Amino acid sequence: MISEEIDRKSFQPEEALRQRVAELIRGKSRDGHFTSRAEIRQKLVDLQLFPPQPEEGESDRFQLLLQKTLEEHGDLREIPAKEAEPRYYSSVYMSDSYVQLLLRKEGDPLSMIAETVRENSLVYPRPLPLTTFKNSPFDLTEEEILACLRQMADREEYGDVQQTTTSIGTVFLYSTLHLDRDYASMLAEWLDVGQFNNP
């Protein structure tokens, strides 16, 4: 009886398989994570939709399945990788800026902090509270943040990342490439104190 059930699942239409893959990618994106090829394949194995051990031609079938899934679902995106395997996400649940944050997080934490501060100084423009880096998707501890700042202070390439402290003691970071000290200090004071005193 069990083997018959497995056989029936094994012949599930490709369209239904592609829908399963799309749902998996979207589910992971909803939780703020990329999905790797290995995760997708393992999920299909767990659902008994793919064999546990790769069979002849199965690798090509899986690659075609992913390709067609991306073609059919316009919100799904692939992140190519030179060394690691590609990963996937849904643009419905993850914006381009959030994707860039996740990619930065995977690299050097000093660069992640600097690029995030520079982006905020340029785009919005605004200084960034130091506590931002404690929150998702950064998830750094206060000790890690302070250690990064100490290292950055000794490296010329991060010389534009500066600090300003508000009247109630909140530390903000900004980039001198895009904000001067006085303007950054004024914005930080407004964000931390002024806007709450002037609703």
Q: SSE layout and pairings?
A:
Layout: H1 2-10, H2 14-30, E1 35-36, H3 37-46, H4 58-72, E2 76-79, E3 87-90, H5 96-106, H6 109-123, E4 128-129, H7 142-153, E5 161-165, E6 171-175, H8 181-197
Question: Would you kindly provide a written description of the structure presented here, covering whatever features stand out?
Answer:
The chain is mainly alpha-helical. It is built from eight helices and six strands.
The largest sheet, given as strand count, sense and whether it forms a barrel, is: 3 strands, antiparallel
Distance between the termini: 67 Å
Name the poorly predicted regions: 1-11
Strand content: 5-15%
DSSP helix fraction: 40-55%
Identify the overall geometry: elongated
The tally of beta strands, per DSSP, is 6
Rg value:
23 Å
Average of pLDDT: 87
What's the gist of this structure?
This protein has helices at 2-10, 14-30, 37-46, 58-72, 96-106, 109-123, 142-153, 181-197; strands at residues 35-36, 76-79, 87-90, 128-129, 161-165, 171-175. By secondary structure, it is mainly α.
Notable features of this structure?
11% strand; 53% helix; 199 residues; 8 helices; 3-stranded antiparallel sheet; mainly alpha; disordered N terminus; elongated
